């Protein structure tokens, strides 16, 4: 085993955001990427209306420490674990935290693999999460997304 991968969905606590949503996202991503640069953690964060879905990859210790920090973040609640397992490779090797806001539902309406991410009462399955994140990982690899989205 070389790497560890964790993926989870959490509900956003809107009452705990102190800034406007765009400012909160920008400030949080800056913080996340700075922190992940120092711990060697990479991954992706998708915002879906009332939830975020995040995937974290790296050495097991730093990934698990990061999961613990996110779990204790007051801006999130009802964390649901989706993937927790060793991994031979990273899906997002160059992304300190790839981010996409899917709340408008447009991307999800055009891609069947993104549809399960849209808010629904049931849990997101491991296979659904892998398909959705692999979609973005594939686009990054194929160079279809710009460098600005690589977040390096
Ligand atoms: C949706 C979301 C995702 C986060 N992802 C990460 C992450 O990947 N890495 C990280 O270090 N912190 C992440 N954080 C931030 C932590 O939850 C926490 O705010 C931070 O580690 C606290 O750092 P501080 O003690 O330096 O203030 C995330 C926060 C939110 C709201």
TrEMBL record:
Note the Gene3D superfamilies from the entry: 3.30.70.100
Q: What range(s) does the BLUF domain occupy? A: 3-98
What are the protein's GO molecular function terms?
blue light photoreceptor activity; FAD binding
A Pfam family annotated for this UniProt entry: BLUF
The name this protein goes by in its record: BLUF domain-containing protein
User: What organism does the record attribute this protein to?
Assistant: Roseibium aggregatum
């Amino acid at each position: 085993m070389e790497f560890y991968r964790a993926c989870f969905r959490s509900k956003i606590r809107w009452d705990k955001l102190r800034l406007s949503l765009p400012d909160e996202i920008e400030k949080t991503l800056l913080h996340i990427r700075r922190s992940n640069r120092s711990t060697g953690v990479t991954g992706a964060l998708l915002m879906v209306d009332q939830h975020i879905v995040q995937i974290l990859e790296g050495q097991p210790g730093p990934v698990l420490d990061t999961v613990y920090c996110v779990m204790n973040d007051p801006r999130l609640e009802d964390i649901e674990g989706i993937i927790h397992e060793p991994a031979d490779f990273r899906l997002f090797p160059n992304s300190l935290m790839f981010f996409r806001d899917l709340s408008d539902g447009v991307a999800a309406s055009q891609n069947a693999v993104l549809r399960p991410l849209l808010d629904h009462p049931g849990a997101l399955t491991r296979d659904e999460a892998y398909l959705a994140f692999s979609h973005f990982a594939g686009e990054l690899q194929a160079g279809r997304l710009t460098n600005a989205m690589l977040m390096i």
